[in-house]
Amino acid sequence: MTLINLTRLSEPTENVRHESSQIKCQWDGQNFGIGTLYISEQVLVWIKDGTETGFTLTYPSIGVYGQTAASDTEPDPALFMVVDLNKTDVQITRPANGHSEDEEEEDDNPTATVRFVPEDVTSLPFLMNLIQECQMLNPDPDDDQADDYGESILMQGDVDELQASGDWYSQETMDDEVQLSDEGRANLERIVGNLNIEQNGSDDKPGDHYMEE
Q1: Nearest to residue 39, comparing CAs of 167, 143, 126, 139?
Q2: Whole-angstrom Cα distance, residue 6 to residue 9?
Q3: Mapping DSSP to helix (H, G, I), strand (E, B) and coil, where does residue 48 land?
Q4: Biggest distance spanned by C-alpha atoms of the chain
Q5: What is the domain extent for residue 130?
Q6: Tally of structural domains, the chain
Q7: What is the CATH number of the domain that holds 153?
Q8: Which of 44, 102, 140, 159 is deepest in the core (most CB within 10 A)?
Q9: Is residue 187 within 8 Å of 181, Cβ to Cβ?
Q10: What CA–CA distance (Å, rounded) separates 162 from 68?
Q11: CA neighbours within 13 Å on the CB side: how many for 108?
């Protein structure tokens, strides 16, 4: 779990594609309450109501995202993301008791899961499509240098957390619970296939656990 401090922000004014109020936000299980989500062509911004504080995400930092259905653990459909914290400027809160050596090594590739729950859940496909369009306008300069090892770090760092939160999907539930673009589905299958091979130590057929990019 990676906790953060909300920082003082101003509403974005340039190239804002959409502004959506009454959006609940959860960051790695940390409930931030209700705020406004701003989708601009450069960044995604969430600001908590009545505080003028929130956080900003660059599109290259959003490595995995999708629309999730309600579940036993999460009663509300949501826009779900896995964020690469190395590509953001969010202020991470460190535990008072510090980190072990293993935790310090994991911190070299920190990720966080983020949920945005709109009051009107029928807006989820629209929000996801907007984010996809804006992400295409902001390609990740590191993509050309990405390798299988880097991709597996992202997945391994979130496996336990996603399984516990109900955001880890099987092939049987994929079509019902997660909506992906064709490109996102292909990327997801490739990443999960690489992870399955590393975990099993063989070239067996990739498992049926899926996330979304």
Answers
A1: 126
A2: 9
A3: strand
A4: 53
A5: 3-210
A6: 1
A7: 2.30.29.30
A8: 44
A9: no
A10: 12
A11: 7
